[in-house]
């Protein structure tokens, strides 16, 4: 089905706090993650909050990647959503987990565009 | 917990196909949805695909709203993610469902920033 997509929701904990507060670094990581998964980057929008935290999105032809970081808690909330079956969103998510040096992560994959939303148990990448 | 968030995932079907392909309209709907929920808009990025379809994001101080539309299938994939407990993401999601004239929707709310990701059964807004 053309509407089919895969949406990886990842909760990253015990990350490198300096990297979680570095907007330029995060933006580069997210663009690289998209490219590494084989996605085509269309729009990039990031925002730095005071005193800390970064939010941002990379819109790809195949959907999006987002982050909200909480450096003070070592936490980042990540979404990688890819439409179609050409790209594996876990490739991008795993790249991000490594780049932010997450000590642990909890991840679920949500099928999109297929009917009722059904979600498996969370796991680590 | 400061990292606490609520992430509404909504699958909208049988939408108004003309509206699903109208980027300006969708952008306005998403900004209005964010404001209606009481959020503060920080960044707006939308992209129109050829021959059809719109992807976009509104980054708010409290996280984000995203859409990917498939006019040819009357389908839109929506995410409304709000951090904290001040804002109800369902208010924005419901506004979007109405504005896109979705005949039906399937929605789940995912708790974020709280530990393992656990998801309830999907429901209609």
TrEMBL record, chains A, B:
Cofactor(s) of this protein: pyruvate
Q: In which pathway does it act?
A: Amine and polyamine biosynthesis; S-adenosylmethioninamine biosynthesis; S-adenosylmethioninamine from S-adenosyl-L-methionine: step 1/1
User: Which EC class heads this enzyme's classification?
Assistant: lyase
The job of this chain, per UniProt, is described as:
Catalyzes the decarboxylation of S-adenosylmethionine to S-adenosylmethioninamine (dcAdoMet), the propylamine donor required for the synthesis of the polyamines spermine and spermidine from the diamine putrescine.
Would you tell me the protein name for this molecule?
A: S-adenosylmethionine decarboxylase proenzyme
Q: Where is this site: Cleavage (non-hydrolytic)?
A: 62-63
Keywords from UniProt, A to Z, are:
Autocatalytic cleavage, Decarboxylase, Lyase, Polyamine biosynthesis, Pyruvate, S-adenosyl-L-methionine, Schiff base, Spermidine biosynthesis, Zymogen
The protein's organism comes out as Halobacillus alkaliphilus
Q: Which Pfam families match?
A: AdoMet_dc
Q: How is the cofactor bound?
A: Binds 1 pyruvoyl group covalently per subunit.
